[in-house]
Every structure is written in C-alpha cells, then in structure tokens.
Write a structure and sequence with these properties.
Chain B: It holds the Pfam family DUF5687. Chain B: InterPro entries: DUF5687 (IPR043742). Chain B: Keywords: Membrane, Transmembrane, Transmembrane helix. The complex is a heterodimer of chains A (232) and B (489). By secondary structure, chain A is of the alpha/beta class. Chain A has a single domain, classed as P-loop containing nucleotide triphosphate hydrolases (Rossmann fold). Helix content of chain A is 33%, strand content 26%. Chain A has eight helices and ten strands. In chain A, strand 7, helix 6 and strand 8 form a beta-alpha-beta unit. Chain A is globular and about 45 Å long. Chain B is mainly α. Chain B is built from 21 helices and no strands. The longest helix of chain B has 31 residues. Classes of the chains: A alpha/beta (232), B mainly alpha (489).
Chain lengths: 232, 489
C-alpha cells in the first residue's frame, strides 16, 4: 500500500533528519514506528501527508506519488497533533465538518460517534465547550475519532497514546486492533511506548536518527528485543 | 530579584516574534515610530502658539478639553493595553514572594508605551509654557499632576480590565457629556476645567491625582495578590459553546461546508470579532467626506475613495488575511480532501455578502443625496468585481499565522506589510479614483460613476481566471505556507 523509495529529508542547516532507502508497507498491515525523540517519526508522517517536501526520493500511497498528485487524500486520514483540530468549533461541528469533506452525511457520522461513545467517556459530546477549551487528552480523543470518519483505507496516528488516561489507552488499543483486523485498512502508529506498540501492531520498525535500525514482525519475543535495543 | 525580572523582560522583548521580522520591516517600523514621536512633539510645541493665535488662552484651553483627552486615553488603553499576567505563571512555583511578583507586574505596566507617550506632548508643551513666562513652579506642579493623571488611568485600566459593564457605562456617560457639549445643551468642562486649572494655580491640588495613583495602586495590588491563582486571576476564560449547524447552507454542497465554518470563525474568535467591529466603523468613515468637514476631501476623487471604503471595510480587513485565518489548522486543511476552488469561492462569497451588508447598512447616506449613495453603491460594485480578487491575490502572499484568540494585530500591523501585497494594494484605490475623475472631467458625475461600476462588472468576468491564479499560488507556496504557519508567536 505504501512504498518508500530513497526518501530523505535534509534541512537547510545540513542536518539529515530522515533517510529511508526502502520501505514497503503492504495493505492491511498495522505498522508501528518507534524511536526516541528526534528519530524522525513525525517527519516521516509529515512526508507521507505531503506537509513537507522530501529532499530526495518519494513516497507512494496506493501507487500515487503523494507530492505529485492529491488523489491519495480521499482514502487517507491522519491525526498528528492539535493543529489538526479547529479550535473554535464544538466537537460535533468538527465531526460534521470532516464528514462533509469526506462525503459522509450526518447520519453516517452520528452512527460512528454512537459506536465510540464509550471512548469519549461522556466528556466530549454536548460538553458545551469549544475544542480549544478541552483538555489535551480530550482533544486527542476528538482527533482520533475524526480520523476514522469516512472509512479511510490508510489511517495515521502520531503518538496516539500520549496524554491519555490508562482506561482510554486500553479503549484506544481496542479501536486500533479492530481497525487492523480489517484487511482493507492499513494503520500506521508511532509511539515512544514499546509495550503499547507491540500490542497493537503486527510489524514494528525502529528509527534512530532518521535511519531504520530494526524491522521486525511482532512475536512474543519482540518486546524483549526492542527493550534490549533501547536499554541504556 | 528585580534584576532577574528585568533580564527576563529584556530577553522577552528582544526575542519576541514581532521583533523577529525582517530587517526592512524593522526599519519601516522604526520610521513609523519616529514619525509619530515627531508628530506628538510637534503638537506639544505647536499647540501653544496655534491656540494663542486663535485667540484662546492655551493652558486654560488644554485644561478645558483634558477631561475628554483622559477618557479617550482610557478607552484606547482598555482596548489595546493588555495586562501582562500570562508570563507570571512560570514564576509562581519558584521561591519568590508573591508581593514581589505583584509589585513587579504592576510596576511593569508603568513603563508601558501608553504612559510615556503622553510625555512626548506634555514635556514640550510645558517647556513652551515656561519660555512664555508662565510661573516655573506652577508649571512643574501642573505637569506632575498631569502625568499622575495618566498613571491613574493606567491603574484604573488594570482594575477594570475585562469588566465590560463598568467600562461601557463610563463610556456612555462621557460620550453623553461629549454630545451634550457639542450641541451646547450642557457643558461638563465648565465643572472640570477649574480642577485642571487649579493644578496650575494652587500648590496642593496636584497632590490629589498623586494620592489617587497611590490609592489605585494599593487596590490593584490587593486585587492582584488575592487573585494570583491559576483558577482565578490567571485562569483563561472559556466560553459556553453551543452547536450551530446552519443547515440552510447544506444546499450549497462543499461551498456551504466552508461557509458554515467561516461564519463560525467570524463569530467565535476575538480577533475576527475585532475585524467585524472595524468593518462596521468603516461604514461611518464616509461621514468625514460627505459632511464636507474636511476641505481636502471634497474633490470628486476622494468622494469615490470614500465610496470604496464605506462598502469595502469588511472586504479589506478580512480579505487581506485569506488564507491566514485558517493558519492554526492549515495542516488539517492540507491533508483533507479539499478542492481549492471551493475554498477560495467560499471566502469570496463571504466578502461579497459582507460588502452587500455594508452597502445596505450605509443606506443612511441617502440623507446626503442620491449621488452620495450612488458613490457607495458603485464603490461596492467595484469592490465585488475587482477588489475582492486583488485582496485575495495579496492575501495569498501573506504567510503570517493569525492567533485567533487575541484581538491584537487586527489594526493592520506589520502582518499585512509585504512588498507584494503593497504592490497589489495600489490599484485597489487609485484605479477607481482615476476612472471616476476621468469620467467626471470629460463628461459628468454620472458617467464617472458608470465607469467605476463598469470596471467592476468587467472585473467580475475575470473571476475564473483570477481564482485559477490564486489556486496556483496556493499550490506553489504550500510547503512554505505550512512551515510559516507552524511558527507560533
């Protein structure tokens, strides 16, 4: 589904923050990206969403080269950070707005929201708050569910587990597992948390200073292997 | 301790986003600042002689209008001078006495531009008084009293900050006095003038404002100290939100989706509300021209200039920042399935609606005759047909993120300055002025109007072409725009 070819990103000051020669993520895979701060996780996702320009190489999403055509947008959804939220809308308005852009009517969106009512824990819908006034964790919940609107085939979450309470983390894991059970949906998740990532992903790639240093299929030994790798 | 604070302030100043703009901008701003200082100083020096020439006693006249000056100052402060409470937060958990923090915060407001700028007028004015044989001690006392009054305003503003009800009632009363004065019903200055005059004539009246400054400082200090908690004084207010679906816009498809959002954008953010208020004020700008109160404004060219401004207030203030209005969530917009065309036309329609509303509201200009209102209507046609395109073309080059939650920066500050936008801005005004002048000179007023309106209609025909160009700019500048919007102030 996603092919990466000779991709690199170098900033003006000459620092190379990402360098991936070859990476192939097949359709239906749930793909975990782990690494320390500055490893290049967010850079990779930003390149995948064509928010920054690659210095060399390219990414193809469903055979569409993302920096040349916009045809990948209808089937790709992402939540990177709060800048994906529109602060002056209520949660409902935001969901319907995204729904409109993804050709979903109000009933479709309502059905999705009803399904994830538990995830919101009663703090989001009808909360009489604009998104800008929500707590960091609640903002994240809104962004994550909004990314599921319109049944996207590629779903990208950057650090979805950060800032969430333990109960919500477990509910989120359930949601991601459910997504990855669908053979049509490719899920990409980045995280600092090895345990969570191992639990929800069937393939894990570790980045260090922009380079792929590990690429493993998840197995009972994976966690140990990763922990050994990141041990000080 | 204060040494540390001062260091912090100095760094905050040097590293602020507004100072970090390019060197050309700094020079421009420097010139601007010097220009205003010179104007103030010149006014201070000139006021004396001008008033004398007109046959007034200068000091008494200044004292007479002092009451309005002070309230105008308070008004400006209320809107523009912000309390620097946010930078206090990191200090709260450090081992610093609360009293020190509060003293410092209040003391900092005393150094504000809003206080010392008045000295630029009053120091030269006082010097001129001395040169003209006014008693030295009395002038010094008067001067001290005056400066104290501005500090009094400073601390009053601290106390009434964000208390709209208090503020608006004061403004209503003073505004009422002003009107009553103008229509010679009741002159409040006959009661206030002796007080200001007494600061010159007696040795003790100047102490009254000084005592009041001390008192307001004391109150402000206590008020702040008791509110120095994250959940009270330092809490950010959050509004009670209600969902508005504007379902009637659904029939317009994606265009409707964007329009809905833009309407919410306008209604729910401080910055955009300021824009709305300004556009409303623009409607009355024409009064300066059509009441013949300023001589230079009576030439036909300036009449159409007024027509453009009266109907185009919203178009200019909103349009120049498209697409920066969406800067906070531009990454979202760029990764969604969005057609640029729909996005641009939504903004365009919003400007058209704004222009139409302004034109309808401006119908009271019919009072000045049909021709005056026709000037505005033709201005509106030109705005819709030509200026809406130019404004958006200029906006496409503005890459400054907008912080929707503060009212700051709405007054066309450095954000709008950019060589390309300036270049695009020129024809917005000059072109219709020239057209009208030509028509008026060779034929008649009505032909002049017809020319302007026709130009608007012709411009309208180029809509698709212009939209394509804007779309191209958006696409070409995409990465640069995203990167620029990421930089928070």
């Amino acid at each position: 589904m996603i092919q990466v070819n000779n991709l690199s990103k170098t900033y003006n000051n000459g620092v190379k923050v990402l360098n991936i020669t070859n990476l192939d993520i097949p359709k239906g895979q749930s793909f975990g990206l782990v690494g320390n701060n500055g490893a290049g996780k967010t850079t990779f996702f930003s390149l995948l969403l064509d928010l920054i320009q690659p210095s060399t190489g390219f990414i193809k999403n469903n055979s569409i080269q993302v920096n040349l055509s916009e045809a990948w947008k209808p089937f790709t959804a992402a939540f990177i950070d709060e800048s994906f939220l529109i602060g002056y809308l209520t949660a409902e308005e935001y969901f319907y707005f995204i729904g409109d852009l993804r050709n979903q009517n109000k009933a479709d969106v309502d059905a999705l929201l009803a399904k994830h009512e538990e995830f919101f824990n009663g703090e989001i819908l009808k909360s009489k708050k604009y998104l800008r006034d929500l707590s960091k964790g609640n903002m994240k919940k809104v962004g994550i569910i909004a990314a599921l609107i319109g049944n996207p085939e590629v779903v990208i979450f950057d650090e979805p587990f950060a800032n969430l309470d333990p109960t919500t983390v477990n509910r989120l894991k359930k949601i991601i597992k459910e997504l990855s059970e669908n053979p049509e949906v490719t899920v990409l998740v980045s995280s600092h948390d090895l345990v969570h990532t191992v639990e929800v992903c069937n393939r894990i790639v570790a980045l260090n200073k922009g380079e792929i240093v590990k690429d493993i299929e998840t197995s009972p030994e994976t966690l140990k292997e990763l922990e050994a790798f990141f041990a000080v | 301790m204060f040494k540390h604070f001062i260091m912090l302030e100095w760094k905050a100043f040097l590293r602020s986003a507004s100072l970090g703009t390019n060197i050309a901008m700094k020079i421009f701003m420097g010139f601007f600042a010097v220009y205003f200082m010179v104007i103030f100083i010149a006014a201070g020096v000139g006021a004396f002689y001008i008033l004398k020439e007109e046959g007034y006693e200068p000091l008494a006249t200044v004292n007479k209008f002092m009451i309005y000056y002070l309230f105008a100052d308070l008004l400006i402060r209320y809107f523009l001078q912000k309390m620097p409470v946010l930078n206090i937060k990191p200090l709260l958990t450090l081992p610093i006495k609360r009293n020190t923090i509060v003293h410092f915060t209040l003391g900092k407001t005393a150094l504000s531009f809003f206080n010392w700028s008045h000295a630029l007028f009053f120091i030269p004015f006082s010097i001129v008084l001395l040169l003209n044989g006014y008693n030295t001690i009395n002038v010094v006392l008067w001067h001290l009293g005056m400066m104290s009054l501005f500090y009094l305003n400073n601390f009053i503003n601290v106390l009434i900050n964000n208390k709209n009800s208090v503020f608006y009632s004061v403004i209503a009363v003073v505004g009422g006095f002003g009107l009553a004065h103008y229509y010679e019903l009741f002159d409040v200055t006959t009661y206030t003038q002796p007080f200001f005059q007494a600061m010159y004539e007696t040795f003790f009246v100047f102490l009254i404002p000084m005592i009041l400054v001390a008192a307001t400082y004391y109150f402000a200090f206590n008020y702040f100290k008791s509110n120095l908690n994250l959940d009270e004084g330092l809490a950010t207010k959050s509004d009670i939100a209600k969902t508005q679906n504007f379902t009637f816009l659904d029939q317009f498809g994606t265009l409707g989706t964007f329009l809905k959002n833009d309407i919410r954008l306008l209604l729910r953010n401080k910055r955009s509300k300021t824009t709305l208020i300004m556009s409303f004020l623009f409607i009355f700008y024409g009064l300066l021209f059509f009441t013949n109160s300023i001589e230079a404004y009576q030439s036909p060219m300036f009449q159409i200039f007024a027509g453009i401004f009266v109907s185009g207030g919203f178009l200019f203030t909103f349009g120049q920042f498209v697409p920066s209005w969406d800067s906070a969530y531009y990454q979202l917009m760029m990764s969604q399935n969005i057609q640029y065309r729909e996005y641009i036309s939504s903004k365009w329609w919003l400007m058209v609606i704004g222009t139409l509303i302004s034109t309808i509201l401006a119908s009271f200009y019919l009072f000045f005759g049909l021709h005056t209102y026709l000037l505005i209507v033709c201005g509106a046609i030109f705005n819709i047909g030509v200026n809406s395109h130019l404004v958006m073309l200029g906006g496409a080059f503005v890459k400054t993120p907008i912080d929707l939650t503060t009212g700051k920066g709405a007054f066309g500050d450095k954000q709008a300055f950019n060589f390309k936008t300036m270049l695009i801005a020129i024809p917005k005004m000059l072109f219709p002025m020239a057209l009208y002048a030509i028509g008026n000179y060779f034929f008649s007023q009505n032909i002049g109007l017809l020319f302007v309106a026709l130009a608007g209609i012709i411009g309208f025909a180029f809509r698709n072409y212009v939209f394509n160009q804007i779309e191209k700019i958006y696409k070409r500048e995409k990465y640069a725009t995203i990167a620029a919007y990421k930089q928070k102030n």
